[in-house]
Specification:
- The protein is mainly β.
- The chain has one domain.
- Strands 1, 2, 4, 7, 8, 10, 11, 13, 20, 21 and 23 form an eleven-stranded mixed beta sheet that branches.
- β5 and β6 form a beta hairpin.
- α1 packs antiparallel against α3.
- Keywords: Signal.
Length: 409
């Protein structure tokens, strides 16, 4: 089950039931049963009244890995998700998968935040104009999206009162039994559009082309080291803005990703692997026998007898972070932006589905452009919303290709 299939196969379905939670200038849509809202202290622009809110979405019931239909992979769509504010600028957000007690749920405990994605159904996408606007994508690396660049830039994503924001969460459970998890997002925002703030235009840049999202992994031992380069068309904006933030998304096996403007390298993203034990598993762990760290000899640290480090052969180190690029300068219609992604399946073990097949390759660079608010507001008012039908048609086409390539010959 792939990310795009889950997103649009359920795009018209509300995932939760419950009561309205008024945390914004207007009442929000009904929140999922169990959704919690916690007010936190803002990190940046507190002098301008910035606010920070943690919203915990859920619960999400994951089927067990032995479930014949899902094999432990489950999507949780929310067509009109509870937002922290309306008529505001979202200046940053983080994403985490958690247990009921608020502790992090991760690969070492047999669950995987396969993907999350936000889309604005009232706007059209900058790089694939037939689709709704893609605001972000994230995976188990759980990258932060900080549009203030640590408080040095006044910029944010504008949410109107009438905007319908779609949140898709896709989680993989490797345990035999069903489990409950929650998606926790910390949102930081300022109300209105304060003087001096720019509005962010998000742009999805993809090695497979901007209206596609993944590539089948190469088959066979002779194809384990490779790079994927975006087609010659690239992406040229129909506006001028400051490209100030690039947040990448890749899969296990990646060694680096690069973004070019007019053929010149402007950004290199390098993933980190297994930087904490939460991102470390080992061979055989996904056979339901145990969680990492529970069996003898899997304690961590020290170097005493019975301990071993994460570099030993039976350990699998998963992507735990990836570097971002900031403040890359002004870009406009005369420029062409491309992306290339490098994979080495020998150096880093790739992601596998429950049937043992390799997960598709991803190489996405999420570009963030800061633009004058009057210009962006004019563009937004002219938008009619992207076509879900066009999105669905392309997803179905991709899935058919993936199934054909995965089928035995």
């Amino acid at each position: 089950m792939k990310f795009n299939t889950v997103i649009l196969g359920a795009l018209g379905v509300r995932s939760g039931l419950g009561i309205a939670v008024p945390v914004a200038p207007r009442d929000e849509p009904p929140a999922a049963l169990g959704t919690k809202v916690q007010v936190l202290e803002a990190k940046y622009f507190k002098e301008l009244g910035a606010k920070r809110v943690k919203i915990t979405y859920g619960p999400m019931l994951l089927p067990g890995a032995d479930d014949a239909t899902t094999h432990g992979m489950q999507g949780f769509p929310d067509r009109d998700v509870l937002m922290p504010c309306r008529e505001c600028l979202i200046t940053g957000f983080t994403t985490d998968l958690q247990w009921e007690d608020g502790s992090t749920a991760n690969a070492n405990k047999g669950v995987w935040l396969h993907h999350t994605g936000l889309m604005n159904l009232n706007r059209t996408d900058a790089s694939c104009p037939e689709w709704p606007e893609r605001i972000n994508v994230n995976g188990n690396e759980r990258s932060p999206f900080d549009m203030t660049v640590k408080g040095t830039r006044k910029a944010g994503y504008y949410v109107r009162k009438t905007d319908q924001i779609f949140l898709q969460t896709e989680v993989m459970n490797y345990a035999q039994d069903p489990r409950l998890v929650y998606l926790a997002m910390e949102w930081e925002y300022v109300e209105g559009i304060p003087d001096g703030f720019d509005i962010v235009t998000p742009v999805w840049l993809d090695v497979k082309g901007n209206c596609l999202t993944d590539l089948p992994a190469p088959a066979g031992p002779n194809n384990m080291v490779f790079n994927v380069t975006m087609g010659a068309a690239g992406y040229s904006p129909n506006f001028t803005g400051e490209l100030f933030l690039i947040v990448p998304h890749i899969h296990d096996g990646n060694t680096k990703q690069e973004v070019y403007i007019d053929g010149k390298l402007v950004c290199q993203n390098v993933p980190g692997y297994g930087e904490t034990e939460a991102f470390v598993t080992h061979e055989g762990m996904y056979g339901h026998e145990h969680e990492h760290g529970e069996e003898p000899g899997h304690e961590h640290g020290g170097g005493e007898e019975g301990h071993h480090d994460h570099g030993s052969d039976d350990h699998i180190l998963h992507v735990s972070s990836i570097t971002q690029c900031v403040n890359l300068g002004k870009v406009g219609p005369g420029n062409k932006i491309t992306v290339a992604s490098w994979y080495n399946m020998t150096e880093h073990k790739p992601m596998k589905d429950h049937d043992g097949s390799l997960e598709p390759i991803m190489g996405i660079a999420f570009l963030h452009f800061a633009r004058p608010k009057d210009e962006v507001l004019k563009d937004i008012l002219a938008m009619k919303g992207g076509s879900v039908e066009a999105f669905l048609a392309r997803v179905a086409e991709n899935d058919a290709k993936e199934h054909a390539q995965a089928a035995p010959h």
